[in-house]
Amino acid sequence: MLEPAYQVDVVVVGAGIAGLSAAHRLTSAGVTTAVLEAAPCAGGRMSTEKVDGFRLDRVGQLLSTSYPELRLTPGLGALALRRFAPGVLLHRDGRTHRAGAPAAAGSARGALHVVRALASAPRGPAASPGRAGAPVGGAVDQARLGTALGRIAATPVERLLSRPELPAAQALAARGVPARTIEGFLRPLLAALLCDPELTTSSRCADLALRAFASGRLCVPEGGAEALPELLAGTLPPGTVHTGVRVTSVSTTSVTTAEHGEIRCRAVLLATDARAAAELLPGLRVPDFHPVTVVHHTTDDPAPALATGASLLLDADRGGPVAHTAVLSNVDPCRAPAGRVLISSTVLGAPPDGIDTAVRIHLSRLYGTSTRRWETLAVHHTPEAVPAMRPPHDLRRPVRLLAGLYVCGDHRDTSTVQGALHSAHRAAAAVLADLGAAGSVNRSEPAPTLPRAA
What we know:
seven-stranded mixed β-sheet; alpha+beta
């Protein structure tokens, strides 16, 4: 029997970084690919708003220079990363100190307890809230933390993933980590990395986040979060990405769109967020989500910039809505006009009423200066910003649903940029394996032209 005619090898539904990076791997292998995006532009949650010369991220997830997929993903070779200062600044008991920077040579003395607690399997009784623990701001504790982070950076991923799985907060206590260390450093750090202030995240995912932090430097894309999808979209073959195209149904051999009718293909890859994917395939699981609100301010007051430099400032006291904040124009100067300061602050969970006032009051304590004259540039609230990773969490959810039907995104891996790109890597490999086995790859075909709906 003759095979039915088709218009493109693979249709990718969704032009976030997962869909775009998968499209790169497919087109690089000679597979004709069409990326369909319902929104007017590519990028998904990695979008950046421009206001009066400022570049304001809507979600503002932190990246790490240690993310392997930032180096391995085709199309991201020109990505510029702006690094935060080593470690983080912690505000606790009215004082600010640096923690988590790499340990200096010879600083291992006295560090064995924390090293074992972070880098070994659970042992000993759980740490109670009243248990004595050395303050994380002292020189001895800096040595302990630095050495512990160095050890976890060298721990193989397979060993981390073989540990018993608990909610992160319970796992840290069960390992005997002092309560002061958990509350004064690990909780605020992991909250910033996972967008989960209560540390309900799987301990395995939390260990991976700590390993990434210890192995590299926190960073942001130069120019805003949109730099990643812009680079990926801009280096795909012309005509690959089609925005403003809403997919209404999918099968293993076609997609139906509101604007162009049916498009026939050899395979379909869903690269949308979890909820949109489940609307097209009702059997897919929809996780819970962590909401994130990002508040952007500017000021002509130099105090915040001078006080924190290019550091990420965390609130270990949990004394207000702000989980972490930074003078982002110190980290990435192109995010603000010359001579202006951009301060970006992240609120995790449900935002309070009167969020701008509450954030200003909190920031005045964190930065030690009045915020009354600060100008609010934007308040971006994303209710479903980050998929929750509560235990048991499958870090490698299947990307191949059926022959011809695949799915990728941060909800199939870890809820990070690394996870989104890695799931796309896995999905593209599955598609290529199936298409290659069928001998159906068109290696010389141009990017497809979509038909008009009848």
